[in-house]
Amino acid sequence: MRLLMVLFLALSAAHLGGCSVAPTHPALQSQALPPLIPVREFVANIEGTSQYRVSPDGVSLAWKGVSGLKPAVWVKKLASGETWAIPMRAQAIVWSGDGRFLFLTVDRTGDEDTHVFAVDTARADAQPVDLTPFKGSRSRIQRRIDNGAEVVVYSNARDKKVFDLYRIDPATGSRTLLAKNPGNVTSWSVDRDGRLRARSVQEGDDRYLQVPDGAAWRTTLRWQKDENWWIADFVPGTNTAWAVSGRGRDKEALVRIDLESGAEEVVHQEPEVDIEQVLMNRHGNMPLAAYSMPAYPRARYFDAALAARLEPLAGGEPAAVHVTSKSDDEQTMTVSVGTDRGWKYYLLAGASKAPELLGENSISGLASSLASTRPIAYAARDGLQIHGYLTLPRGVQARALPMVLLVHGGPWARDLWTYQGTNRSVQQFLANRGYAVLQVNYRGSSGYGRAFMEKAVGEFAGRMHDDLIDGVRWAVAQGVADPARVAIYGASYGGYSALVGATMTPDTFACAVDAVGMSDLSRLIENAPAYWTLGLPWWKRYVGDPADPAQRKIMDAKSPINHVGKVRAPLLIMHGVNDPRVRFDQSERMVTALRDAGKQVEFVSFQDDGHGNQKWTNNLAMYRKTEDFLAGCLGGRSSGFDYYQLGAWAF
Length: 651
Hints:
Distance between the termini: 14 Å
Strand order of the largest sheet: 28-29-31-30-32-33-34-35
Radius of gyration: 25 Å
Mean pLDDT: 94
Structural class: alpha+beta
Largest sheet: 8 strands, mixed
C-alpha cells in the first residue's frame, strides 16, 4: 500500500510541478533570488534529526528523527552499531541514571494531556510503557535519579490546578508520592539522588523558599513577587546551591546561594542580559559554563579543558555551542552547535578523539540557500532601547523590500539569533519567499532584565505594540522596507499582536497573519487552563483582572474583537482545535465578527493539534496557506502546490 502511494505521489508530482508563483513586488522582479525551497523541506524533511542524548554509562545514544515517514525516537548501541526506532513523537528525551531506560514526554494531540513513557532499551523489541496513565493531565520529567533507574515526575493528576511530585520505577511502573502540593507550591527542587530538598511557595504577594524539617517545612528565604530565580543544582554535603538569580538585581546572574540565609555569591553576570542556561558537572561541585545571548550567543567557560574541546566547533564564527548530555565520567558528550541557519549535532567521545558529526536539523542541510540574520537595535518613541533581528532575502538588494514583522509569543519570551525560539523555521521560510523579516524583542520580552520586562505592565496594545510599530518605522527609515507592503505575523501573543495591528494600527499593515492568537483578553483569563492557577496573578498584573469591572473595561478596549470595524486589510487566522491555552473559540468568534462586518478573512483550523502544531501535515497546510496569502498582499513568491499535500491525508 505504501509503495503504491509513493508511486502515486511521484507521478502526481511530475504533472503538478512548475506551479510556483513569481514575485510581483517591483523590488523582487529583477532580483536574482535564491532557489525556491519547497514547503516540505521546512516541515517534513525526513533527513532532519535533533535532541541527541548519550546514556550516563556512555553505552547508548538516543535522538529524535523519522522512521519511514513518521516521527520516531532512535536508539543506537555505540559499540555494536545496532540501531532501532521507537515509533513515537516525543517532546523530550531523558535517559535513566543506569542507562537502561529511556524516558519520553509525549503529547499526542496538542491538548497538553502530556504523559511520560519508559522504554527498556535492553530489548530492541520493547514497547513504550505509560508511567503516567492519567487522563486529561500534564505530567513531565522533573529529573532522573543518577544512581538507579527511577525518575522523578511532576503531575497534576490529583488536582488540575497544581503539581504533585512522584518517584517512579520504570521496571515495575510503581509510583510513590514524593510530595503532595498543598495548593501554593509553584516548583519543587530535587537533588541528583532523588531527595526532595526544597520547594517554592507563593502566598498573595509573598514568595518564599521552604526546606524539609522532619515531617514539616521550614521557611528559609524570601523574595519579591517580581523577582525570578531558579536552582541549577545542589552542592553536595552543604546547604548551598548553584542558581540563576535576579534577587535584588536587575539582570539574572549565576550565583552560589546559601539556602538557609539567602546570601548570594555572584559567580558570573552579564551587563546587558540575563544568564539563561548553566552547564553543571556530574557531581554539582561547580558550574562548567554559563550561557547568555546579548546579540550573538555568548558562553563563559569555567573549565579550560572543556572550553578547548567545545570552542573549535564554532569554527571561529558566532555560534551557540551547548553540551546537551554527558556520560558519568564526562568524557563522552553530545553537543549542539547552532547558528542562524540551523543546528548540527556532534558526539565527542574522549578528549583525544575528533568530534563526530551525528546529524543536523531539517533546515541546516539547506544552509547554502538560507539567509543570514543580523542583530539590530533602535530607540522606541519613549527612548527605550529595543533589540531585535533582521533577516534579508539572500542575493537581493535590501531596498524597499516587502517585509514581514514576525512577532514572538509569550509575551515573556524572546527571539534569538540562533535558529530556535517561538518562530523556528518561519523566519527562513519567509526570507526565502523574498521578504525582509523583522523580529523585535519588545518591552516585556525575557532576557533583558527585570526593569525591561516590567515596562510591559499594563501595556498590551499599548507601548508593547508601539515598540513593534517603531520597529517598522526604523526599517522604513533604513530603506529596507516598503512602507506600503508590510505584514504582521505571529503566534500566541504574536497572533494577538497581528490582530491588534489589523484592528488598531490598520494604516501600518497591508495584511495580518494570526496563529493561535487571543482576540478577547477577558475571556483568555476567565477560560485559562486549570494549571495556570498559580500563574494568574502574574497575568493579571500585566494584563488585568476581568473580575474587576474597571479593569475589564480596559481589557475590552485592548481586545481586537471589539475593533473589527477598523479593519482595512485582509487577515489569515489559523488555530488548532485542541488548544487549551488560547481556546479555539478566540479565533472562531473573531472570524465571525470579521465576516459579519464584511471584512476579508481566511480561516484555517488544525485537527489533532493545539497551541502550535506538532503534526507536519498541519504545518504543511499552515505554510502553504501563508505563502499564498502573503504573495497576494505583499507580492512575494509562492512555491505553489506541494505534492506532499496529496499524501497528507494518510498521516
